[in-house]
Amino acid sequence: MATTGGTKGRGRVTAFSLFGPVFGYATTLVEDRQFAYVGPLTPGVGWRLLWRMAERCHNDGVTEARKAEWIVSQASRAFICGSGVVVKLSEADWVMEPGGWTVQLDGSWCNQDVLVTGDLTVPVLAAGEIAARHSRFPQYAG
To answer: Which pTM value belongs to this model?
Structure first.
């Protein structure tokens, strides 16, 4: 894992609820590599929560790359299947704050080559769209 610098983008964004908090998922193509940007949109939720969730769902001591694949899988599942989707935007600005983690995936996973996690902002989203949702499994987000 490497620490990320800040990144801005414009494009497709999926906001989805995962065990309560709302996360954002955006992608970009950089030099023939597909980057997945995933981070919390719910105020007060830090990006490291994604990694704690991955650890709780993979409590068998798997590698950081495998946890990254789990995070990408959850975002992809929301985008493709609509699981937990709060809103899908076909064109929106987004900002990934500096200080998160970048992980090179083992090969391509869900059509992504690199995962970037960090604090994400999508300015067009309203407070009600980024507020935490009810979850039947809050223990994974705690």
So the answer is: 0.92
Q: Would the pLDDT of 59 be above 80? A: no
Using CA atoms, how far apart are residues 132 and 5, in angstroms rounded to an integer? 27
77 vs 91: CA distance, rounded Å: 19
Strand extents, DSSP E, 1-142: 2-3, 7-17, 22-30, 33-40, 85-96, 101-109, 112-117, 120-121
C-alpha angle 57-59-65 in degrees, rounded to nearest 5: 75
Q: Say which amino acid occupies 16.
A: F
Tokens of 103: 């992980």
Convert the pLDDT of each residue in 107-131 to its tens digit: 778 888 999 999 999 999 999 999 9
**How many whole angstroms separate alpha carbon 26 and alpha carbon 108?**
16
Helix pair angle (48-57, 64-81), 10° resolution: 100
Strand partners, 136: none
pLDDT for 30-54, tens place per residue?
888 999 999 999 999 999 999 988 9
- Return the amino acid letter for 62: V
Q: For the chain, first and last CA: distance in Å?
A: 23
